[in-house]
Amino acid sequence: MRTPSLRAIGETMGASVPTVHRWLGGGQRRLARVVGAHLGVIIDVMRDRTGARGAAGFIPCADAELFPIRTLLAFEEMGRSDDFVAEQVAEAWRELCVTLGNTIKQSDVGREAVILRGLWASVCDGHAPMTLGDASRIWTEDVVSRRDAGRG
Length: 152
Description:
Elements: H1 6-13, H2 17-24, H3 28-53, H4 67-79, H5 83-101, H6 109-124, H7 132-148
Helix pairs in contact: 1-2, 3-4, 3-5, 4-5, 5-6, 6-7
């Protein structure tokens, strides 16, 4: 994947090339900063969904809601070969865990984040995707059962 040019970024943002260079810098970190900005939007989307639907908001209700999750997973993959992108992805997961902690018991956040990541990967898998209904059922049963048992 090629790093976007400063001109292309400037045109998208409505800014001049020197302004974009000052904001983003150059070279290798540019991609990471753009990724970080997109991840910020994804975090906001997840906060909105969980604000409206509680913990259930972490699982999409429709295929149209998969885009932010697919984007996050793609950035994770990019982070395997780019340490700067990996830092942005790690920060996004920290923010997601904070959001998750607002919907469930704090001591369960790590466990539930692993389950959530697995469900997201499963519903986005192009070869044998899990249905959104199955993912929602698994997530809801897990979160609700832990809460009802006094653990969540």
